[in-house]
């Protein structure tokens, strides 16, 4: 009987792996970036909704029903965003339009793409920023695309709760929204400037008939793709962007390889790139001005981590293969961005003592060399606390000690996505990039660290 139980467990694991592979094939999702437990919970939720108890039967349903696959994707991909999330990209966009685009293109239409657009906060923020910059509404147009039909439906309604307004400056809300109790209805004048499109970035025919854009926002999505998905998306962005056009990526993607014609823009925390003349097909690291900030830090004014040692001294103490696992610095990451959160998150203030104990136990296990147990404990904790950057750093260091550099780097990327100024996460990410020869990417991160220390 025990053997049969083990066989059943092994079969379920294989089926779970097959479902993850299906998601990778359809939407490029790398299961490592959000964790198998997150996908497993989404699968269990869909199985319950379908009245199924056998995961193998559910896999067969997924393979036979495009509708059910879409439902699973909707359950996994639940974006979280807000208006003017991280200000600097919008600041740079306004300056670019005022000082460069408008003087050269009087009477023409500025074409902008927001991808993925989630529930509409980003493309609507772009529309408001362009109007505030003095661009006549008849002279700009915004396309916004996302894989989620549910997100698109909400975006079209243009009704938002308080959670969509986390920026410190909310003057724009009084000018462009009508309050109805706890909800805010976006004015029709802004809503009609955005054209929403439902589609899959990895579909070979995605936006194939669209003319190139002057500006593209594609922030913090590449980190969730496997390598093939990232390269396919980069090729798509290259095709869709005009020469001299501006591309905005996320801060966690600042070390991403781009075609050689993309040069970084001199605006801190905007993480913007200009497409210039270059030989097609050649791919190099972006090496010019690493002050490509993007909006992670507007700076959410989170203080630098307690450890304020300089990069060189920290590097000398962490280059050992079995580097020490640091104590977690904070157990809550309020107002942190989250692209693919779990369907339901626990209250950030609940079970704090238990959470502290879990991470402390994981650290002690790692210090004793019990890496497998430490990794499992971290993963279990993260399955219920998806926004804790310190836990991702801890898990990344465990993977690093195990020699799994790829998973370690992905954990550090997720930590710095959730908490852009996470000192230890940035340090380890820079070291890993340097170790694998990505000197340009490491240099960019080092300079971010240096700016934090000033």
Architecture overview:
The chain contains 18 helices and twelve strands. By secondary structure, the protein is of the alpha/beta class. The strands form three sheets. Strands 6-2-1-7-8-11-10 form a seven-stranded mixed β-sheet.
Gist?
The chain has 454 residues and is an alpha/beta fold.
CATH-level-4 superfamily name of the largest domain: Vaccinia Virus protein VP39
**How much helix, percentage-wise, in residues?**
40-55%
Radius of gyration: 22 Å
Using the coordinates above, name the CATH class of the largest domain.
Answer: Alpha Beta
Indicate the topology.
Elements: H1 2-27, H2 31-34, H3 36-50, H4 55-64, H5 66-76, H6 88-104, E1 110-114, H7 121-132, E2 140-146, H8 149-157, E3 159-160, H9 171-176, E4 177-180, E5 183-186, H10 188-191, E6 194-198, E7 213-217, H11 227-240, E8 241-248, E9 258-259, E10 262-264, E11 272-275, E12 283-284, H12 311-318, H13 352-367, H14 371-384, H15 389-402, H16 405-418, H17 423-435, H18 439-453
Parallel strand pairs: 1-2, 1-7, 2-6, 7-8
Antiparallel strand pairs: 3-5, 4-5, 8-11, 9-12, 10-11
Helix pairs in contact: 1-4, 3-5, 4-5, 6-7, 13-14, 14-15, 15-16, 16-17, 17-18
